[in-house]
Amino acid sequence: MQAKAGCRVTVPFGKQQRVGIVVSVSQQSELPLSELKSVVEVLDDEPVFSTSVWRLLLWAADYYHHPIGDVLFHALPILLRQGKSASHAPMWYWFATEQGHAVDINSLKRSPKQQQALAALRQGRIWRHQVESLDFNDAALQSLRKKGLSELACEAPALIDWRDGFSVPGDRLRLNTEQATAVGPIHSAADRFSAWLLAGVTGSGKTEVYLSVLENVLAQGKQALVMVPESA
Question: Cα separation of 105 and 119, whole Å?
Answer without folding.
Answer: 8
